[in-house]
Amino acid sequence: MNLGPAEARMLVAGIRGDIDRDAAKLAKDRDVMVAPPAILIPAVAQSLAGASIFLGAQNMHFEDKGAFTGEISPSMLKAYGVTHVILGHSERRHVFHERDDLINKKVLAALKHRITPILCVGETLAERDKADTLDVVLRQLQGGLEGVDAGAVASMILAYEPVWAIGTGRNATPEQAQEVHGAIRGVLIERYGHDAAESLRILYGGSVTPDNVDSLLGCRDIDGALVGGASLKADLFARLVRARLG
User: Fold this and answer.
1) If you average pLDDT over residues 162-191, what whole number do you get?
2) How far is residue 92's CA from residue 106's CA, in Å, rounded to a whole number?
3) Which of 61, 84, 127, 161 is catalytic?
């Protein structure tokens, strides 16, 4: 929940300017997405015109329309060119008390509307200290993917974001992150098969910076980053986008 329309346009213009020189390499190697607050989506959509940067949303409702004051529907997002939506972010779960069954409805709605869901999972510090990390993460994963078949899951994106690393300056070590990412990939292989599990990308989120991104992306099952505070500075975000670029 940052910036106004003019500031958002300036930020996106800065991001575009910083990464344009590597556009050809980036297009072959990775996808780039920005996900502004819903009220800023029209402004950011204009600033992204002609760019190879995807437009995402931070949340959405699961119904197409209705008496849901303050909510944003999938069709509203589609009208502005939104291609991705972040669902089950730790703040949605822990500040706004969204449960697995609600998040699952949103995942299914996103897939129905051909919006790529970015399903977030992650444990609190108390849960990690009790050695409950994998139990919590895999429960959230199972709940969020209920009713999703192998073909659909292959087109999704998952994000492991330990709650204790969101906006705190702390981040999981590469070994801690890989342990969880590997467990997620293993469950997906068991449930959906090797091809679907390998097609799906699993991102790490939680105080990702230019200083730690290379070590995180060097892990076998970490396919990218879900960036928080560092995305509010064009030069930092551009450095993350170019991480490990050959």
Assistant:
1) 89
2) 12
3) 161
